[in-house]
Write a structure and sequence with these properties.
Elements (H helix, E strand, L loop, with lengths): L2 E4 L5 E3 L34 E4 L2
Antiparallel strand pairs: 1-2, 1-3
């Protein structure tokens, strides 16, 4: 499981945790997140996220 960070605001999507508020179940891999996904904090596109290692 990986984490993906918005390059604009820093919001992090954690594949292990998912994002229930936006219909993404725990364990949902970034590749399976719809292309229409936007950052819930600032509204940028999925393409504006980068994988981060913590």
């Amino acid at each position: 499981m990986k984490q993906w960070q918005c390059v604009v605001c820093g919001w992090i999507y954690d594949e292990a945790a998912g994002d229930a508020d936006h219909g993404l179940a725990p364990g949902t891999r970034w590749a399976d997140v719809p292309e229409s996904f936007v950052c819930p904090e600032c509204g940028v596109a999925k393409a504006d996220f980068v994988m981060v290692e913590i």
